[in-house]
Write a structure and sequence with these properties.
The protein has 661 residues and is α/β, with parallel strands linked by helices. It contains 21 helices and 22 strands. The chain has three domains: 205 residues, 3-Layer(aba) Sandwich (Rossmann fold), CATH 3.40.50; 162 residues, Rossmann fold (3-Layer(aba) Sandwich); 96 residues, Alpha-Beta Plaits (2-Layer Sandwich).
Length: 661
């Protein structure tokens, strides 16, 4: 490490024990002697080692040239983070960094027991790490004393403002001493961040370590175009193809987290979920499962997009696109950290290509556009991974040689190799069959019309599926199912693929009749289906298949059946009404001369009929008003008491009001 002479001795020992040979640009910038004691406004990209950076920067203020921190009491430094996971991660990083200096680090976050946190603060600590809401709450209740604070760090300040923590931040910073040192770290410096720095920092020095040219240079971006219905299948294929030690899948909503977690769990992936609806204990257990290797996939919302650092996280999948470039960079920054390589895959629906291109351009990153991994790609990757398996290259150990010799003598090399292949493939999820999207994207209207035609065929309103282009040498088969037995291409198509072992590309037109369904196939696919059916032609439960001489006649597969003889109405409709005629005896409406005076609507009663009057008199009314109007012409208020016969007032008791008690 080249900067050992400028790093405090106890921190240098901790870095060496941790295996730090070189420092990142933001960490080296914090060791500049010109910045000692200054307030800093630092811009650093995610994954650049900011936690160690402000740990080194605080050491200049906390140690004051000594090798040990003073006895623990009221905190000397305060670090504010936007999320619970980031705060707990900062606590873990500072614990090993300040271990040789005797540092005690406390954490105060929402979802944990505040009484236990208060007892920890009362016992004494050097550094307090927490979220804005919980720290502000401890301040109001008198559990947090900021009188001896020497340094305050705001980590991910832009995210805290976006999450609505402005009032809490202002409350905390206003309670801290004025002569403190304030370090503000943010990925981007927006106008709200600049105003916050002006109000709570003293002539802050601007430090920018973000380079647009090498931003996320260790991350390989892939934009994978899919149909909207294949998004979850594409996520499964991407996870299977890369087979990363740890992977995180980002979605935008909590319900999407639960849905995708359930599907991945059913497909055999070891998966955990992370979103705002889970308790702090559940979220902590999920992250710990990823660190321990008990889970390999984490489905999360943007709550995990900031600061989360998981070992071996080599793959980030955007199942739903982020809202802006900041969300893209922070999500993708979970991989490719501290010099490691990583892959970021964006699942892009065909209609969102233009939006994704603008998003990538605004973020300053370039992506390779392609289709998701197919079944053949995943199988080829599995075979290559098996041939390069590390156990095959390890030398035979002394304790393994007798058993290896016995296995070769009993089963032979071929049988043992086949068993090894089966063991490696056992328990893996089968890849999904995804429709390919052409690389040549035309106009947006063309893509939209092709998608609409694929979902809603409009050819004479037939219940048929048409494959483009038609097969020039297609062969026809018939299935013993029709409209009367609820035949539908939605289940006929996957049934043929599963029962016959064929693909969608080998299936052409599907024409459904009253009792039979005609299906057009490629010749080799038709032979395969017939062979699978056997002598009885049974391919699925009570469904049988037979060869057909050609396509059916036009009237055999119409959605409403053949035309009924003797009726010239709408095809497939109902015959005329045979009951009582509505108009004349012959059933025809009499013709009317349009030049005549238009017809008048018949009145319900005559003009001189008294029933037409708006204020119809009441026969029971004797002509006397129910109340006499006062001078203002208003109805008088009802008196609260009435006069008794003796002339004394009788008080009318009110009903008691209902109460919650």
């Amino acid at each position: 490490m080249t900067e050992k002479n400028t790093i405090a001795a106890p921190l240098a020992l901790a870095l060496s024990a941790r295996g730090y040979d070189t420092l990142t640009p933001v960490q080296e910038a914090m060791l500049d002697p010109a910045l000692e004691g200054e307030d800093l406004l630092v811009s650093a990209q995610t994954g650049s080692g900011k936690t160690v950076a402000f740990g080194l920067a605080m050491a200049q203020t906390l140690l004051s040239g000594e090798e040990k921190l003073p006895q623990a009491g009221p905190p000397l430094a305060l670090i504010i983070a936007p999320t619970r996971e980031l705060a707990q991660q900062v606590q873990r990083e500072l614990q090993w960094l300040y271990k040789e200096a005797g540092g005690r680090i406390a954490c105060c976050v929402g979802g944990m027991d505040p009484r236990e946190e208060r007892r920890v603060l009362e016992r004494g600590t050097h550094v307090v790490v927490g979220t804005p809401g919980r720290l502000s709450d401890h301040l109001r209740r008198g559990g947090l004393d900021l009188d001896l604070i020497r340094a305050v760090v705001l980590d991910e300040a832009d995210e805290m403002l976006d999450m609505g923590f402005r009032e809490e931040l202002e409350h905390i910073l206003s309670e801290a001493p004025l002569d403190r040192r304030t370090l503000m770290f943010s990925a981007t410096v927006s106008k709200p961040i600049a105003r916050l720095a002006e109000n709570f920092q003293n002539d802050a020095v601007r430090v920018n370590t973000v380079s647009r040219e090498d931003q996320h240079a260790d991350i390989e971006y892939q934009a994978l175009t899919v149909q909207p219905s294949d998004i979850e299948s594409a996520v499964i294929n991407v996870l299977r193809f890369h087979d990363a030690q740890n992977a995180i899948v980002f979605v935008s909503r909590r319900d999407a987290v639960n849905r995708l977690t359930s599907r991945l769990n059913n497909r055999g992936f070891s998966v955990v979920a992370l979103s705002g609806e889970y308790t702090q204990k559940e979220r902590t257990n999920a992250i710990q499962a990823m660190r321990d290797g008990r889970a390999r996939v984490c489905v999360a919302t943007d709550v995990a997009a900031r600061g989360l650092d998981l070992p071996g996280l080599d793959l980030v999948v955007h199942a739903e696109l982020p809202r802006n470039k900041e969300g893209l960079l922070h999500r993708s920054g979970r991989t490719g950290r501290a010099g490691r390589k990583g892959v970021c895959a964006l699942i892009v629906p065909v209609r969102s290509r233009r939006r994704t291109e603008r998003l990538l351009q605004d973020a300053g990153v370039e992506a390779v556009w392609a289709n998701p991994p197919s079944v053949a790609d995943i199988e080829a990757q599995d075979d290559a991974r098996l041939l390069n398996h590390e156990t095959l290259s390890d030398p035979i150990r002394d304790g393994e040689r007798p058993l290896a010799t016995a296995l070769l003598a009993k089963y032979g090399a071929d049988q043992i190799a086949a068993a090894f292949i089966r063991v490696q493939r056992e328990g893996r999820s089968a890849p999904e069959d995804i429709r390919e999207v052409d690389d040549d994207f035309g106009a947006r209207d063309d893509r939209r019309s092709r998608h609409r035609e694929d979902r809603f065929p409009r050819e004479d309103k037939r219940r048929s599926r048409k494959q483009e282009p038609d097969f020039a040498d297609g062969a026809w088969i018939t299935l013993s199912v029709g409209r009367k037995t609820n035949a539908d291409p939605k289940w006929i198509l996957p049934m043929l693929c599963k029962a016959g072992g064929i693909t969608r590309d080998q299936i052409g037109n599907i024409r459904i009749g009253a009792t039979l369904t005609h299906v057009e196939l490629k010749p080799d696919a038709a032979d395969t289906i017939i062979t699978k059916g056997g002598p009885e032609g049974r391919i699925d439960k009570s469904l049988t298949v037979n060869r057909a001489s050609g396509p059916p006649a036009e009237d055999e597969y119409h959605s409403k059946g053949p035309r009924k003889p003797g009726f010239k109405g709408k095809q497939g409709g109902k015959p005329p009404f045979k009951g009582k005629p509505r108009f004349a005896k012959d059933g025809d409406r009499p013709a009317r001369n349009r030049d005549e005076e238009p017809r008048k609507k018949k009145a319900r009663w005559a003009d001189d009929d008294p029933r037409k009057a708006k204020n119809k008199p009441n026969p029971k009314d004797k002509g006397k008003p129910k109340w006499a109007p006062d001078k203002a012409g208003k109805k008088p208020r009802k008196p609260r008491h009435t006069e008794a016969a003796s002339g004394t007032a009788r008080i009318v008791k009110k009903k008691p009001r209902k109460t919650d008690g």
